[in-house]
Design a protein that fits this description.
- It is built from 6 helices and 2 strands.
- It has 168 residues and is mainly alpha-helical.
- It has 2 domains: 6-41, no CATH class; 61-152, no CATH class.
- Helix 2 (43-75) crosses helix 3 (87-106).
- The longest helix has 33 residues, at 43-75.
- It is elongated, with a radius of gyration of 27 Å.
- The N and C termini lie far apart (76 Å).
Length: 168
């Protein structure tokens, strides 16, 4: 008769749970199961206890990212974005990630990069005019090389006809 690999353990939280002990040598499974029950809580209780910690960690991480984005806004004179209560912090972070990635990628040390003045003129000036949160959220996954084209063509005035590559 083979020693069972799955053992029903009563944990210190009071719950009983079937636990796979196949990685524990057969001669040590009973003692290992006893130790787990004496010293640990079940998976459901562990998840429940750690959910609050995870939410706190996520809130702290999001607050830090938003603070970095707002600092970037202030450093580059970017106006606040306009949108719903949920869109504003999201779009602020997306705009920061998109523009800071473009800044690093396009103002590097190669021959094809932009100077700080060119970056300001060709990317930041048009970006300042885009205040709709939805636009930043929709274009947040763009490549750094595409940012200039995106921000320069973002504003379509009702009186102006903007040429596109689409024939229709």
């Amino acid at each position: 008769m083979a020693i069972a690999t799955t053992v029903s353990i009563k944990y210190k939280c009071g719950h009983t749970q079937a636990t796979d002990l196949s990685k524990v040598p057969a001669g040590r499974r009973k003692a290992h199961a006893y130790g787990l029950g004496l010293n640990r809580i079940c998976g459901r209780c562990f998840t429940k206890e750690n959910a609050a910690g995870r939410e706190t960690w996520l809130a702290e991480r999001n607050a830090q990212a938003l603070a970095e984005a707002e600092s970037f806004e202030a450093d580059h004179q970017l106006p606040p974005v306009e949108g719903s209560e949920k869109q504003i912090p999201w779009a602020t972070r997306v705009r920061y990630e998109l523009l800071s990635t473009a800044l690093q990628a396009l103002t590097g040390d190669s021959d094809e990069t932009l100077s700080a003045e060119d970056f300001e003129e060709r990317i930041l000036v048009p970006a300042r005019a885009i205040t709709r949160a939805r636009w930043w959220i929709d274009n947040g996954d763009a490549d750094a090389e595409d940012v200039e084209e995106l921000v320069s063509t973002a504003l379509e005035d009702a009186d102006d006809h903007v040429e596109t590559e689409n024939p229709f």
